[in-house]
Structures are given as C-alpha cells and as structure tokens.
Design brief:
Strand order of the largest sheet: 1-2
Radius of gyration: 16 Å
Distance between the termini: 60 Å
Number of strands: 2
Strand content: 5-15%
Shape: flat
Mean pLDDT: 77
Number of helices: 4
Low-confidence stretches: 95-102
Largest sheet: 2 strands, antiparallel
Number of domains: 1
Structural class: mainly alpha
Order of helices and strands: HHEEHH
Length: 102
Amino acid sequence: MTSYLSVDDLRTATRNLYARDWRKPIQKGKVKIKTKDMRLIPLVPNEVQTRLMAHIWDMEQQGKPVRLMIPKARQHHIHTYRSHHLLQNSVHAKHKCHYRSG
C-alpha cells in the first residue's frame, strides 16, 4: 500500500531539507534573480560562485567561522550569491536573536 504525504507534510519536509543544506535551493533552481529587463530567471552559479559555495560549506561543516575577503567580488556577482546564503541562514535559523540595541 502506498502512502502519500499531505501538502503540509511535503512543505515541512522541504523546509527541513533546505534548513539542513542551504545549497539545495540553488542546486535545484529554486532561487530566482531579476534581470535588467525585469524577468525572473533561476540563479545558475558561475565557476567562482560554485567554488565559493563549496568552500563555505566545508568551513561550516568543520564548525569554523566563515570570514572571507573576496577581491573583485562584484565582478564575479558574489553579492547575489552571498545575499541568498545570508537569507537562507536567517530564514532557517534556530530563532536566536543577535540584535543589540544601544
């Protein structure tokens, strides 16, 4: 007998997968960027972004803090990629608040 997941269960499973591995949405073409003519297209990482993604993933898996200086980052569109990475980490954070006022 085949059992099917409900829509909510499928959503939860997908959210948990993306929470465990922030690379998945990029790899599956789920991250969209807006072109200059206002079209939404999938973010397809270039060679530099792919190497950066692998390097950041390795550092995170080793428990090391990720601190990078990237020369000419704008020329390699690193900001677009890094913005997605930061967003994923924020969305899937364990609700820790690091905000300090004053």
